[in-house]
Design a protein that fits this description.
alpha/beta, 6-stranded mixed β-sheet
Length: 189
């Protein structure tokens, strides 16, 4: 490991965020600046529209929903270099409605980060089985199932982020696919 950069050669030092986008809640996790360990941050309420469509709620003057704004603020506070958003594919690898929703959310996040002058890159990473793994980890830790709801999204975000960090170390490059604002089409707006 390169002591000055604190990470593998070629990867700039800086915190990373992990995001688990759910229909009702968003789990948020963060790493240290060296990208070694993912830890839970908080559960952010997902913004819903009155008509039931996901992500269509009132927006700020800049056009950002409160859930996206919270993640942008966390990225700014931690000087994040990457935000990893979980991409919920089916076990077969095919994409469905939840995948499209996560892609749309990631696109809104990219736009909000750019509008705020934040340079964090947004990347989508496969999150198959993270919620199942999070439930198992919480049960193993002695948490009752009724207690899981308040922290399950954070635990899933930790798994998403830690997997991405492990992939970074193994490959010497960022994990997942880059999200660019101009290539994302939000069908929910």
């Amino acid at each position: 490991m390169n002591e000055q950069e604190g990470t593998e050669p070629g990867l700039p030092r800086g915190a990373r965020l992990g995001v688990d986008v759910g229909m009702a809640r968003i789990g948020l996790a963060a790493s240290d600046p060296d990208g070694l360990v993912a830890t839970p941050v908080e559960t952010v309420p997902r913004v819903l529209a009155g008509g039931g469509g996901r992500g269509q709620a009132p927006r700020s003057a800049e056009g950002t929903t409160a859930d996206v704004a919270r993640i942008v603020a966390e990225a700014a506070d931690r000087f994040a270099v990457v935000v990893y958003v979980g991409l919920p594919r089916h076990l077969s690898g095919k994409e469905g409605a939840a995948t499209a929703d996560a892609r749309a959310f990631a696109g809104r996040l990219v736009a909000a980060l750019e509008a705020a002058g934040e340079g964090a890159q947004v990347r989508l990473v496969d999150e198959r089985m993270t919620t199942v793994s999070a439930h198992q980890a919480l049960r193993t830790a002695g948490r009752k199932t009724k207690q899981h709801r308040s922290v399950i999204d954070q635990a899933a975000a930790v798994i998403i982020l830690q997997s991405a960090l492990d992939a970074e170390r193994a490959k010497g490059e960022r994990a997942g696919e880059v999200v660019e604002a101009r290539t994302v089409h939000d069908t929910h707006e």
